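User: If you would, consider this record:
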Amino acid sequence: MISNLAKNLIHSIDLLLYPSVCQFCDSPVLNSNTGFVCKRCQKKTHRVSAPWCLKCGIPYNNDHLLTSDCNYCSKMKFSRARSLFIAEGVPREIVHQLKYNQHEYFEPLVKIWLRDILKLDLYKLPKAIIPVPLHPVKQRERGINQSETIAYIASNYIKAPVNTKLLRRIRDTQSQTALTKGMRKKNVKDAFSCSEKIDNGQFLIVDDVMTTGATANECAKTLIQNGASAVEIFTLTRGMPLDYACS
């Protein structure tokens, strides 16, 4: 009885806070179980699909280089990076809302999407899942770390614990959005540290979006320098760098 009352109360609050329409096209009769996104808009995505670089996962326009890394990621420290969607349309907007507007009501849809993490060729038994950390100042400003949200959802499918303490951001870096590849790399250089030494093991770093891979690479480098044997990357979306050209 209490459970039903609680569910009804939550549903009523949903209706008060968010109109029961699709947040992208205003289609009616939706609720929190759909993430307030209609089925038609849920399909407005561009999946990252093969052929892709076997290391960084960036998609190619043709079939070449399927057995080697692309020039873009040859010096990256992580062993593999994979994403579900190209950062455009509905996935891009949802990532933006999670990051800046704290719209947790999209989480049911993110849970549905992340079921497909098991279809990716990622290691299924990492020692821990590690969300890319925010600097404490930015964490207080936003009130939420969207990477943690994604990491905890991912842990429901990849049965590994989420560790939010091991990796720390020790510099309050500026947003990477408007920076070039070189500027992004410099911006996050030595921005992370480990709270303790790692006794071997493979780890999965989780973030909302990967574009040049500078942040992911710096996180992976920090973990490996402190004893991790290997690091993989998973992001919900993949931005296509303006200066990228497959080779």
